Amino acid sequence: MDSRTVVARAIRFEGIDRLPIFFPDPYGSDLAWTGMSPSPDDRPKSGVDEWGAEWKNLGKTNLGEVKKVPLTDWKDWDKLKIPDVRAPHRWEKVKTAREAAGDKFLIGGGISIYERVHFIRGLENTWMDIYDHPKELENLLDILVEMNLVAIERYAQAGVDGYMFCDDWGLQNRLMISPQAWRTFWKPRYKTIYHAAHEAGLLTLLHSCGYIVDILDDLIEAELDVIQMDQQQNMGLDLLGSRFGGRITFWCPVDIQNMMVHGSLDDIRAYCWKMVKTLGRPNGGFIAGWYADPVGAGHRQEAIDAMCQEFLKISETLFTSAPLPRSSW
User: CA–CA separation, 60 vs 266, rounded Å?
Assistant: First the structure.
């Protein structure tokens, strides 16, 4: 199977002949990316984004964080800069992305509907808005949803395969907000976005880290196809596999905060096997990945090599031209 086929079939649980992968050179990747340029969801290391949020780099990591939000008071709503997602210049690179991606599974980048809110309002203000300014919060969320709907239409026209954005919802052991508040404000809006993507022929992907067990059922109901999570140990592979395996595709590296940092190379290799057999299924459900900011996460090169090589070994061992015995899974 070519890259585009193996990723799509893994996500749909339609049967695969190898694990789909997202690795650095020289190990290869089945995924390619495209996006608006500039994107309204750009997160600069430093400087000011299109919404007026001021960013500052965190140091070794490739990430920045917002140091000054553009909307501290809802009274200043009319002053907020809302980017025009339909601006023609944003879409020039997307027009040629399909050809450039070749046979890879092409993902189009969307606009976060939680992180972008707290980049605009601030994290604590966002939490308070749930209770003190629900109508204003819903208005902002609906603008972000509409921007995503426009993006989905453009990506579909360009031959993109999947639609993805990032919303980190979890702390280490719980959600940042109550599950009920999440279901009231965010779940129906994810459903709107993901249903539109499916109607347009795109598969749906979300990056979300932290402890998100409490909303994974809801995300599945909202038509999410792939959860890209860089942590698993804080939730437990067995819990994730038993509750959600076979119902959603997991796209994961070895846990980036614990195993990749503190585990021995043999520990990492053993964890790779457990991930595939616990989170995946013989007909799909798992994409093997890596964390693309290894310096910021404190990952050793030998640990990265061990992980990538072991996932490739697992793929060669488990997926052959012969039917796969259930007992081997």
Answer: 27
